[in-house]
Recover the amino acids of this structure.
């Protein structure tokens, strides 16, 4: 069964450093998403992406964050200058369509620790 | 804005007992509702979803949920718990914009199974 994959599974970085989290969505999916889960808190929506542009973003997704689909298979989340509070599990998801009832398929996550 | 409330951050049941995880939603429009499960060190997996039609929804691993509009609830049940059901369960609602949707998660319920 097709699945969303994410790399790396764990990343440790120093505050102020740039990090890039990578995702390979399911191949025929057209909508891509990033969510994050700070330890002990809810899973929160960050951004949705379709047709090479951001469809929707949350207030968390400030200028420090960016997303890109650099080629036909990868979808990346970049944090330009990491802060301690960026430490979280980051989940990538994808779906065939963007309608409300559409299933989003999640990857296993990247655990980011900012020191 | 839509929201989801899960009652009980931790539920513990004996193996073979009924599992009941409670979820209430708030939505101004007919909701799309989901239950996701997260096993330790894994991503979010869809258990089941309600979009339209039959209000009793059956999912994977013997789980089912019933959409009750009058109670704004979408409780998850399983008649007989198995040790392998131990995981974190998230109720969620989908919020749909003109170009894409996003999932709003509840805070999660950790299910423990006693031998």
């Amino acid at each position: 069964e097709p699945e969303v994959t994410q790399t790396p599974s764990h990343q440790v970085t120093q505050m102020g450093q740039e990090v890039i989290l990578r995702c390979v969505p399911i191949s025929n999916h057209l909508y891509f998403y990033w969510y994050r889960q700070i330890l002990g808190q809810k899973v929160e929506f960050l951004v949705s992406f379709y047709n090479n542009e951001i469809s929707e973003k949350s207030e968390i997704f400030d200028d420090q964050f960016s997303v890109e689909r650099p080629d036909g298979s990868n979808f990346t989340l970049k944090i330009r200058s990491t802060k301690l509070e960026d430490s979280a599990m980051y989940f990538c998801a994808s779906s065939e369509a963007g309608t409300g009832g559409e299933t989003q398929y999640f990857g296993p996550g990247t655990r980011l620790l900012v020191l | 804005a839509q929201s989801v409330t899960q009652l009980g951050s931790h539920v513990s049941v004996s193996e073979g007992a009924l599992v009941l995880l409670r979820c209430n939603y708030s939505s101004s429009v007919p909701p799309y509702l989901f239950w996701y499960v997260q096993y330790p060190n894994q991503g979010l997996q869809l258990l089941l979803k309600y979009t339209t039609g039959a209000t009793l929804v059956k999912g994977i691993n013997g789980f089912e949920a019933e959409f009750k509009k009058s109670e704004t609830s979408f409780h998850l049940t399983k008649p007989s718990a198995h040790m392998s059901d131990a995981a974190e369960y998230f109720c969620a609602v989908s919020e749909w914009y003109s170009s894409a949707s996003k999932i709003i998660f509840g805070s999660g319920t950790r299910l423990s199974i006693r031998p």
About this structure: DSSP finds no helices and eleven strands in chain B.
